[in-house]
Design goal:
Layout lengths: L24 H28 L4 H16 L16 H4 L3 H10 L17 H14 L4 H7 L10 H16 L13 H13 L10 E5 L2 E8 L2 H12 L6 E8 L7
Parallel strand pairs: 2-3
Antiparallel strand pairs: 1-2
Helix pairs in contact: 2-5, 4-5
Length: 259
């Protein structure tokens, strides 16, 4: 294969022309020039491939090797290592778009700077490197989407209004039970209040009435003047707070009177 290179003889030092050129030396000069040109050409081609198809696996692999591997191979800065999938568990639960976003913008409070600190990379370059890493980690986009939380309906939306209406209907259909009173009953205080009420009745009920209370259930025993006093004694007992029921066993003295 014949290799050609453009050589400006007028720009060469005069000392070069004193070299004895031979047919054997000329190919070596041409090949040396070509060798110097090959790396630059290859670099230009690689850069063009990255810009034109940054999401391709080939460019992603090359970007990873040149940039990302500095941390993700060694674990520097607490970066998860590509060869240790268990270090990626939490990250692999995110969507691909979320992982792209972190790589491009960086993550506050960690060593992950925007674009890994390589500002010369385009967003497409960074995403291509991330995609390469995800392939190596056997990332499943569907699993991450299924695990992503579902956003709650916005306030005032039809779904939110319907949910509130259903909750209100359920509350009406099943009202909460009334709170039960667990306070202990003071039977002595109840009996004392009933006796005080009889004493304040101006003789309507005798203070000799026996009053007993057990758990708020009051029993009245004894003899009173007449049937009106029997009823009055029961009414005064029922009016005392804490009384649940009254067992009236009072006897009217009127039944023992004869003409």
């Amino acid at each position: 294969m014949q290799v050609r290179t453009a050589l400006n003889l007028h720009a060469l030092p005069a000392a070069w022309f004193r070299v004895a050129w031979s047919r054997a030396a000329l190919p070596r000069v041409v090949l040396s020039c070509a060798a110097l040109a090959v790396p630059a050409a290859s670099h230009a081609q690689a850069g063009g491939a990255t810009q034109a198809g940054g999401a391709t696996q080939a460019s992603g692999a090359s970007i990873y090797q040149a940039k990302c591997s500095l941390c993700h191979d060694s674990g520097a800065g607490a970066a998860p290592r590509l060869t240790h999938p268990e270090e990626w568990t939490a990250r692999l639960g995110q969507t691909r778009a979320a992982l792209h976003n972190v790589a491009v913008q960086g993550k506050q409070g960690t060593a992950m700077a925007a674009k890994g600190g390589f500002a010369e990379l385009s967003d497409a370059d960074v995403k291509a490197a991330v995609d390469f890493m995800l392939v190596k980690l056997d990332y499943k986009e569907g699993a991450a989407l299924a695990a992503a939380p579902v956003s709650a309906p916005a306030a005032g939306s039809a779904a939110n209004v319907a949910a509130a209406a259903a909750a209100a209907a359920a509350a009406v259909a099943s009202p909460a039970p009334a709170p039960s009173s667990t306070a202990p009953v003071d039977d002595a205080a109840i009996a004392e209040k009933i006796r005080a009420a009889y004493a304040a009745s101006n003789g309507a009920v005798s203070t000799r009435v026996q009053v007993e209370s057990s758990g708020g259930a009051v029993t009245l025993r004894g003899m009173v003047r007449d049937n009106q006093a029997v009823k009055r004694a029961e009414d005064l007992a029922r009016a005392v707070p804490g009384v649940k029921k009254v067992d009236n066993k009072l006897v009217s003295a009127a039944v023992f009177q004869w003409d």
